[in-house]
Amino acid sequence: MSITHVDVRRGAYHDSVTLLQVSRTVADAEGVEAAQVAMATELNVEVLTGMGFDIPDGAGPNDLVLAVRGADDAGVAAGMAVAEAALAAKSVPSSGGFGDPPTPRTVGGALRAGGADLALISVPGRFATAEALDAIAAGASVMLFSDNVSVEDEILLKDAAADADVLVMGPDCGTAVIGGVALGFANVVEAGPIGMVAASGTGAQQLMCLLDAAGVGISHCLGVGGRDLKTAVGGRSTRQALAALAADPATTSIVVVSKPPDEAVLADLEEYAGGLGVPVRWATLGAGRPDLTSALEAVLRAEGRDVPQWPAWVASEDPEPGSVAGALRGLFCGGTLADDAMLIAAESLGDIRSNIPLRDDLALGSDLRDDGHLVIDFGDDGLTQGRAHPMIDPSLRMERIAAEAADPTCGVLLLDLVLGYGAHADPAGELADAITAARTAARDGGRVLPVVVSVTGTEGDPQGLTATCEALAAAGASVFLSNRDATRHALTFLGGTR
Amino acid sequence: MTQPTAPTTGGPLRGLLAVESPAVATAGVPLFAEALRGQAVAVTEADWQPPMEGTEANLGTVMADTRRAEANATAYARLTASTAELCDVKQAKDALGLERGTFLHAGPPIDWERASGPLRGAFIGAVLFEGLADTAEEAEKALAAGKFTFEPCHHRNAVGPMAGVVSPSMWMYGLRDEVHDAWSWCSLNEGLGKVLRYGAYGPEVVDRLHWMTDVLGPILQQSVRATGPFDIKSILAQMLQMGDEGHNRNRAGSLMLLRELLPGMITADASSTDIAEAVRFSGANEHFFLNLGMPACKLATMAAHGIPGSSLVTTLARNGTDFGIRVSGTGDEWFTGPANTPEGLFLGDYGPEDANPDIGDSAITETAGIGGFAMAAAPAIVKFVGGDVAFALRATQTMYEITMGEHPMYQVPILDFRGTPTGIDVVSVVRTGILPQINTGMAGRVAGTGQVGAGLVTPPAECFPAALAALAARV
Fold first, then answer.
1. Sheet containing B451-457: which strands, arranged edge to edge?
2. Partner of A223 for a Cys bridge, out of A127, A169, A219, A290, CB 3.0 to 4.6 A?
3. Which residue range(s) make up the domain with A24?
């Protein structure tokens, strides 16, 4: 008989990535069956409840929950001891030496202490505005990774930044490359002539990886946040970023990549870009507009470059084209990759339900379940409150892959995997295991489940593109560098138009 | 003042795109700092923690207030530019127009009902000293019956150490800020042990007050009028380089002050016996200077007060029951919470159970950038207040996290003459959760006891979110 133990510590804050590491350490302890150490956000409480833990009422997002299920009392005690030790190891006093200044507590203090040029802020969203204002006041541009920042605050920050002649990249900005420095999630690519403005993190990564495969490097990639091209924000950061890149001698042409923008904002920006004296090209997603890969191919042609054959590893044991009965299930970590896939798939499949739907009436319920075609973005704000991004903590998506494998309405699994700095150090191993398990489970249920993976990465990335793709291919998946090609391949099993 | 980092080169975004391998400051997920270090990028990682609970909306509002940067720059400039010269010594009735039956006290406003032991004791002693009652019981009865008026020293541009009780006949030092044309006043120091400011009111206390009124006050007045004014700010700057921090250690300052006052005291129109006793009394008191340092600090914070939009703290004060703060941009509103009890070292047989909660206006020193904030300049203080030398160094360095700048005159030799952390910012306190470090004396809990020890204390945290909310409401 298992024993569960739940301990709530009021006001004990730790960041979600640290807690993820602590949770894993505890789960590995002798005699522990399951463990989760997390801040008691609504989402985490739901996850904990789902794991069979009883969370006391009144536990809130500022409270730390230590939940351990052990085989017996000794297992629980061992787990709690490991948790205590792991948490204590994270809170070693920062200084104490003779005259050593203490570690700065705020981003402004860190900017001054280090004479830094730039701030990277990834605190929980409700605290992010204060930190970003602090950085702007200190005269530094900001990459604001934090999500769950209100649009009012975003506008306030961007106006303050424009007044101070600095750039706010974000909120919810996952990717930037400045002066060869990769910030957040970014891939290792060569320096080159293309400047990027990105209202999309994984969209930017997809483009820089395709450029890398085509042998073209980038000068800088300036993030602007996923809402920058929406009506409310009106392209505030995009304008600043375009002007900065146009004035940069290393940049000879610019690509703007975005999730589906507001048409009027896009039109204004196109007009603005026309006066900059540098070619500006657009990889802005939307119905009737080119997908990311096609937009990038157009850029290459406009630059007078060859469009290469995009790398692909096609599985040999998959069903015949058009022979699969179930629906498309796209489980993504990258929001723009999910959008790109949905836009491509919708052309042949029609309506696709999603937590980031192309139309409001296609929204999934909070259980994220549907029998038809669906695409889920696990990196969406609603699924990251108090949790690390799925590119760091893939556990929610892993659970869903297992669920889809057992679901007879799932015809084909379309996944993404993003490599580079900031991403999981060895994502291929875990994902390959999950793919193998899913295909085995489906086979046990009498189905052959094709799995297609869109891998965004470069050979220079710490994880290595080829090594990653080969590991996934060995697990039976088809693997593509181009998100378009991956999506199209997944669609072939469903028989294309119906 | 906090200055924006200088633009590295020309070009948009302060030349950001022209920087080769920019240096990065991070706050939040450690993973990103690690990823940057993996690229051999220079990274400074903030040890970020969430701000005080429930403050995020007000922080956003106040930090986005477009007046704030300039308001704080103005407040800080005024605070550090203020001068402080000892220009006169007068009785409170003449200096402050203090009426008979009115008593000033330390800290935020309070009534008899809520007054702590030492404050009650000091009121009793002052009533006896003024001849408004014949016995302590009679005085207490009249006080409890509401026969007298209480008012904070701060409301009269004055400050008082510990209980800070001032009555009309007491003599006060008058300090003037020439730049901002202001005066601040503080009573004469009575020495250590059983004294009024620690709540003692026995015959020796009242007798000493009479001697100070009849003998010491007039001699000091003659000295200052004959040979003053004396630059108190300059003594403060020097004493920090001589091992004092200006709150709980005033040894060098007291000697320097005596050096200034002596010629005028010796030539005063008084008997040689009285002059000798006045000189002996002043020289024997190692806190003689405290009552000059405090009004000098009060002048600085007065100059910084009342600037709309400024989040600079201009008052930290305690009455033995409540700790109160005031902020430049919120005018004369007090934000209070229950005073903490200091932790530290005890005299004789006294122990923690004998200590009264924090009391006195002397935290004006920390408000102006000395005292606990200058502890690194006074490592010997740890013998008196507890802790070790590393603690003293750390205390000062930590205060830079919650202050606006480094004082141009008050410097810490061991930190390479870095200016003391000056100008507490409510926003920084709320964001970091770091509370101002105060060095203080400890009064006995029971009225009449006197001093029981000295130690370290912080304000109750709740004063700061309340002040922040008031700032946000004024945006």
1. B343-346, B451-457, B438-443
2. A169
3. 3-90
Residues A279 and A334 in one domain: no
Pairwise pLDDT comparison (A478 vs B382), residue with the higher score: A478
Q: Are residues B286 and B321 in the same domain?
A: no
Cβ-Cβ contacts under 8 Å for B340 (sequence gap 6 or more):
B323, B357, B358, B457, B458, B459, B460
Interface predicted TM-score of the whole assembly (ipTM), two decimals: 0.89
Tell me whether residue A54 is exposed, middle or buried, using C-beta atoms within 10 angstroms of its C-beta: 0 to 12, 13 to 18, 19 or more. exposed
pLDDT of residue A98: 59
User: Is B267 in the same domain as B184?
Assistant: yes
Closest CA of chain A from B77, distance in Å: 18
Strand extents, DSSP E, A324-468: 327-332, 353-354, 374-377, 410-418, 451-456
Disruptive mutation site among B26, B41, B402, B427 for chain A (greatest number of A CBs within 10 Å): B26
pLDDT digits (tens, 9 = 90+) for A417-440: 999 998 888 899 999 999 999 999
- CATH number of the structural domain spanning residue B268: 3.90.1710.10
Sign of the Cα pseudo-torsion (A52, A58, A62, A65, in order): negative
- Do A354 and A489 belong to one domain? yes
Shared-domain flag, residues A277 and A316:
no
In this prediction, residue A99 carries a pLDDT of 60
User: Which of chain B's residues have a Cβ under 8 Å away from the Cβ of A137?
Assistant: 2, 4, 63, 69
Across the interface, of A113, A184, A422, the residue whose CB is closest to B44 is A113
**How many structural domains are present in chain B?**
3
In angstroms, the separation between the Cα of residue A91 and the nearest Cα of chain B is: 10
> B19 to chain A: nearest residue by CA?
A179
A106: contact with B, CB 8 A cutoff:
yes
Q: Could you give the CA distance from residue B103 to residue B89 in angstroms, rounded to a whole number?
A: 19
Per-residue pLDDT reduced to its tens digit, A277-294: 999 999 999 988 999 999
The verdict on a CB contact (< 8 Å) between B47 and A112 is no
Task: Give how far A130 is from chain B: nearest CA, Å.
Answer: 5
Same domain? A415 vs A487 = yes
pLDDT tens figures, A55-90: 988 888 878 899 999 999 999 999 999 988 888 775
Assigned domain for A109 exists: no
B62 falls within a domain:
no
* Cβ–Cβ pairs < 8 A, chains A and B: 238
Over its C-alpha atoms, chain A yields an Rg (Å, rounded) of 23
When scoring A122, A194, A239, A251 by the number of chain B Cβ atoms within 10 A, the one with the most, hence best to mutate, is A122
Instruction: Find out whether A401 and A367 touch, Cβ atoms under 8 Å.
Output: no
